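Predict the 3D structure for this chain.
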Amino acid sequence: ILETWSGATRTNYAADSGLSTQPFTDFRRNPTTGSLYCFAKHDGKFYRKKTGDTAWTELTRPTPVADSASEPTWLLTKDNAWLTIGCFAFDPQVPNRVWWPEGSGIWYSDLNETQTTYLLKLKTKGVEQLIGRHPRIATNGKIYIPVWDFGVFTFNPGEEGSYRLTKYPNTFLTCWAVDYCWDYPDRAVAVYADNQSVRNPLVAKTT
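Done. Predicted structure below.
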């Protein structure tokens, strides 16, 4: 169920446009426009609802493209539409840009309020065979990608090349969540599950 509360007033968005039976994975407001709402559904569908709209608009996807020639182009031939879109995030440095992991790739798309399509651009070199979770894009543009089994990968804006594994942890860990410090965006805290431990404890580390 997708709903919001304002005081004692509840708005059930999931009842609009026949979406009440759909499983949702994430819901975000575009910080640039303020009136654009987007959320992703379990089977890879992507929807938008602007302020004043009475229905959700499904955004369709054309054939994806690579961000640069160095990207693994084999991912462009996969049908990612059936795969789950996990959590996604708007880029605080690039207006209307949204990032998400889908299947075995990291993608971004530049949106606006008049589009009925969204073009996937592949930006995944270095993590192309890993399963990403919730991306974080810091205020300086630095990208944090938590992944299953291998911790956190980062990418600095303006650099050529691939995502790099952070120095810690250098072991077999799944990162469940990562967040950065707003005033010091090169500092981040991550929560991990130790896949080598029978008890599978959660650990936290500042990077």
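The chain has a mean pLDDT of 75.
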